[in-house]
Amino acid sequence: MTVAARDPAEPLVEAHGLTKLYPVETGFLAKKRSLLSAVEDVDLAIFRGETLGLVGESGSGKSTVARLLLRLEEPTRGEVRYEGRSINALPSRELRRLRRKIQIVFQDPFSSMNPRHAVGQIVGEGIQTRGPERAKRLGEILDLVGLPRAVVDRYPHEFSGGQRQRIAIARALAVDPEFLVLDEPVSALDVSIQSKILNLLHDLKKHLSLTYLFISHDLSVVKHISDRVAVMYLGHLMELAPKRKLFANPLHPYTQTLLSAVPAVGKRESDGRIPLTGEIPTPIDIPVRCRFVTRCFRPVEQSWHEVPPWKEAEQAHFVRCFNYAPLSQVLAR
Hints:
The protein has ten helices and twelve strands. By secondary structure, it is an alpha/beta fold.
């Protein structure tokens, strides 16, 4: 497979003001129409050849961002651009062509496969060539993901979780994509299998010049594979920085809380641990305020009445907070 040279400084995928609100009915007797805020005002750029890790608790909006970037869902407002071109209003034919460039790998590959189709059908459905060339290409893709070519006649239920994930990755690669969204691709696997899949993804990215959006709730996994890391909470991006910056000295209280809970060899449970307490807010009809303020360990009055702006606090280090501070200062207090 040959890959044309690309400018790594050029964003491949961009989101500007990306927002997804779902109308819901609340109340038991007197029904009230409300809005559930899944994602709101997300600004994001993913550069060619990088892996952007997107991390946050369940319900933070990570998977919704992925579906909006792929236009599997339509945004309430905001814009997604691919190679500098807006995809919001692409006609169906052009959208189908675009979707050959962008693919998604899900957490549970078994649920996304037709159990009545053999591996050859599952992986081969995206291959455009026919006859001997198709069989040759199918074999090459299986080689890339570390599966023997003899599996083409076997069915999904015959494989382990790690093997199924390799099949899912192979299916995504069959259309020669540029951009892969990896939505919790190793969270359902044993730790030993996780490392093998992560190493496979790393090798594929290098060999095929791929770009990844890697979604996970596991900071250790994100640290292993990502170049930059974005942190989400209740639909808002809270922090985004190069991996080394974010893990060495996070600025946002939420990121600091998450990182303080990551276990490490020789680390006692109480060493530098910042407890995450306070009320967990609902995403329905969220008040105009910082979304983390009810659980923040250093809130300021302004946070209860205004939404903090998304700003570049340091070079290439973005944060949404009125009272951000380096972790070294926080632990020294």
